[in-house]
From TrEMBL:
Name of the gene encoding the protein in the UniProt record: purM
Domain PurM-like C-terminal: 180-347
Keywords: ATP-binding, Cytoplasm, Ligase, Nucleotide-binding, Purine biosynthesis
GO biological process, one term: 'de novo' IMP biosynthetic process
Gene Ontology terms for molecular function: ATP binding; phosphoribosylamine-glycine ligase activity; phosphoribosylformylglycinamidine cyclo-ligase activity
Cellular component per GO, a single term: cytosol
Cited HAMAP family: AIRS
Catalytic activity: 2-formamido-N(1)-(5-O-phospho-beta-D-ribosyl)acetamidine + ATP = 5-amino-1-(5-phospho-beta-D-ribosyl)imidazole + ADP + phosphate + H(+)
Protein name: Phosphoribosylformylglycinamidine cyclo-ligase
EC number: 6.3.3.1
One protein family per Pfam: AIRS_C
NCBIfam families cross-referenced by the UniProt entry: purM
Organism: Nakamurella leprariae
Length: 367
């Protein structure tokens, strides 16, 4: 008995995967990637592997630093708004600002885009954003993968991830072993929500408050969707410039977990960073979220950056020079507080026991 079906045979396209669309997307993304190429790039998009000449002549004892990350549920806002040319900037920011946190110069990045259906123009818009982020970070986009997953994802859905690689001198690695009592803590302003906490954002503003993304919000002078899609500020070049000119001991990229939890990662045992909320005002979007969801301050501070996207722990001498470096780069920066011994912090805070590695005191103005 012949069990084979009668009629034309199955095709890859019939299963939902279009080789032609994938090739068209690659052709559209190549010019974006070329914008980012450094002189070290030998083989970029199109080959089986990317080649990058490590600039060993610039280093005595180089270490490679790497980080992988994604954008999370902020992609749901981009998809709902049908705006895809900024989400790639967020992707780059999430990766390169982790790489630079140890003092490393980001060298190159590779992306991974998974989608239900390859729509070449949409993929090109996403990659245009990734390329723009790489330009802002000074690194090269050398390759990646676009994967079509019909049946697993709906045709309009996509998700993003990337891995970045940087280089740093072994004796210039920044981190908790350099941090000392008396250091000052600088906070660099965020551009808004950045790319963390969007499950909370969507739950509060879209599910509970039932707000429209295309609705104009007076506090933002633009639509809610435009405010939420504001891309992450990329700090990589600012951090490298500051470390070149000033005695930086550690950086902390403020992402999921908020200011206290991320800064605590670079504060060593026996020390406490004592920060004052009165030194900065969170952007209006955070008050907007808190108000619509009746979200407590503690919950807000665990989910969001609250207006501080990167922190530098620096030597206390001539702090004006450090601030001048960042001011010249048009990056609003404030002194958040100081690093103290745990014993000193306990007395000064009238803390009954040993204080945590990071303590936030005071109340934000206008929040």
């Amino acid at each position: 008995m012949n069990r084979h079906p009668i009629g034309p045979g199955a095709t890859y396209a019939g299963s939902g995967v279009s080789i032609a669309a994938g090739e068209a997307a690659v052709d559209l993304m190549k010019p974006h990637a070329r914008r980012t190429h450094r002189t070290e790039v030998l083989e970029g998009i199109g080959g089986f592997a990317s080649l990058f000449r490590l600039p060993l002549n610039r280093f005595r004892d180089p270490l490679l630093a790497s980080s992988s990350d994604g954008v999370g549920t902020k992609t749901a806002i981009a998809q709902a708004m049908d705006v895809h040319d900024t989400i790639g900037i967020d992707l780059v920011a999430m990766v390169v600002d982790d790489v630079v946190a140890c003092g490393a110069e980001p060298l190159f990045l590779q992306d991974y885009i998974a989608c239900g259906k390859v729509e070449p123009q949409r993929i090109s818009s996403i990659v245009a954003g990734i390329a723009e982020g790489c330009v802002r970070a000074g690194c090269a986009l050398v390759g990646g993968e676009t994967a079509e997953h019909p049946g697993l994802m709906s045709p309009e859905d996509y998700d993003l991830a990337a891995t970045g690689v940087g280089v740093v001198e072994a004796d210039a690695v920044l981190g908790p072993d350099r941090v000392r009592a008396g250091d000052l803590v600088l906070g660099m302003a965020s551009s808004g929500v950045h790319a963390n906490g969007f499950s909370m954002v969507r739950h509060v503003l879209l599910d509970i408050a039932r707000l429209r993304l295309d609705g104009h919000v007076e506090e933002f002078s633009r639509t809610l969707g435009e405010e939420l899609l504001e891309p992450c500020r990329i700090y990589a070049l600012d951090c490298l410039a500051l470390a070149q000119e000033y005695d930086v001991h550690a950086y902390a990229h403020i992402t999921g977990g908020g200011l206290a939890n991320n800064l605590a990662r670079v504060i060593p045992d026996g020390l406490t960073a004592v920060l004052d909320r009165r030194t900065w005002s969170p952007p209006p979007v955070f008050g907007y979220i808190a108000g619509h969801g009746r979200v407590s301050r503690d919950e807000m501070e665990q989910a969001f950056n609250m207006g501080i996207g990167m922190v530098a722990v620096v030597a206390s001498d001539d702090i004006d020079r450090a601030l001048a470096v960042l001011t010249a780069r048009h990056l609003p920066t404030v002194v958040l507080g100081t690093v103290e011994t745990a014993e000193t912090a306990a007395v000064h805070l009238d803390h009954g026991g040993r204080p945590p590695r990071v303590v936030l005191s005071g109340d934000h103005p206008r929040f």
